[in-house]
Amino acid sequence: MHSDHGNVPEEYKRYLAWKTLVVVLCALALAAALLMSLCVGAAGLPLGDVLSSLLGQDSTPRIDAIVRGIRLPQSLAAMVAGGGLAVAGAVMQAILRNPLGSPFTLGISHAAAFGAAFSVMVLDSGLMTSGRTAVTITSPYVTTASAFLCSLVASGIIIAISRTRGTRPETMVLAGVALGALFTAGTMFLQYFATDVQLSAMVFWTFGDTSRASWAELGLMTLVTLGGTLYFLANSWNYNAIDAGDETAKSLGVRVERVRIVGMLLSSLVTAVLIAFLGIIGFVGLVVPHMFRRVIGADHRFLLPASLVGGALLLLLSDTAARLVMAPHLLPVSVLTAFLGAPTFLYLIVRGRRS
């Protein structure tokens, strides 16, 4: 699109306004979904009582306990996790120039599952007691730390291989697929020799559940996600240039290898922190960037914030629905995202081939 005697054409202004409008509408929908998630559940609450509790006005201890003690941290954890996974997936797809770039295809989720299984069986953190969710892992921080370290190991191996063999996207993807298969085999090996209690604890951890996060964990998740997102937004022009090809990006002055490795490291860090605290939540990082890429295009100045807000909205709605489907019992949100994500991704693939 050409400039009109130094002025920005009206058509281009409308083009940018449409993208901005989509992000703003998603943000408004996210705010409405947050209030709805605080009102609905096994115990329905009027919106006025929820607002009174949030503002610290006239409210009963029972409502305060439900709103601020249970539902608010769970809803905020769903928003942070959904936004973080979606924006990390968008960055992975950009720097790898591969539409299948996500924590799953790169083996990071499989590495976290292996770390949790290793902790349960070898570090003896898998004794279970009765609790609000029927079973709870007695040493959650040990299990979380083990899952986090294994996620970082997987990311480190991918980066090390790419540094040795050249930072080509296909090298990173193939290394991630191989590591995913290796960590899956390791998890199956541990499960084969585990006792019934250990096996139950391993399977329980793999169910992604936003109710596990406390306020302290939520603060760390938010800090890492926010820091990573700010870096990604600052490099949105670089990701646009890489989308046009490595040679084109280099001709524009982009240090492609550096951008690719730092982006991979940070997106893996964001994913590892979220998965380590909440368990494996699939398809958000893979599907959400594709959905918004079809609506507002591949300009990362808008795609990244849209993926951040859209991912938060999608996981918050999924978490609220999972809370209602089998009320008063809680359904892990990862089950619902898998049921919704797989058909959605297949639909996007079919639509893409037709177009």
Polypeptide structure, described:
With 355 residues, this protein is mostly helical. Helix content is 76%, strand content 1%. The protein has helices at 10-39, 47-55, 61-96, 108-121, 140-165, 169-193, 196-206, 215-234, 236-243, 246-251, 256-278, 284-296, 300-325, 333-354, and strands at residues 128-129, 136-137. It has a two-stranded antiparallel sheet. The longest helix is centred in the N-terminal third of the chain and has 36 residues, at 61-96. The radius of gyration is 21 Å and the shape is globular.
Share of helix among residues?
over 70%
Task: Indicate the proportion of strand residues.
Answer: under 5%
Strand order of the largest sheet: 1-2
Can you write the helix and strand succession as a string? HHHHEEHHHHHHHHHH
Q: Any idea what the shape is?
A: globular
Euclidean distance between termini CA atoms: 23 Å
Class by SSE composition: mainly alpha
Report the uncertain regions.
Answer: 130-135
What's the pLDDT, averaged over the residues?
81
Describe how the helices and strands are arranged.
Elements: H1 10-39, H2 47-55, H3 61-96, H4 108-121, E1 128-129, E2 136-137, H5 140-165, H6 169-193, H7 196-206, H8 215-234, H9 236-243, H10 246-251, H11 256-278, H12 284-296, H13 300-325, H14 333-354
Antiparallel strand pairs: 1-2
Helix pairs in contact: 1-3, 1-13, 2-3, 3-8, 3-11, 3-12, 3-13, 4-5, 4-6, 4-7, 4-11, 5-6, 5-11, 8-11, 12-13, 12-14, 13-14
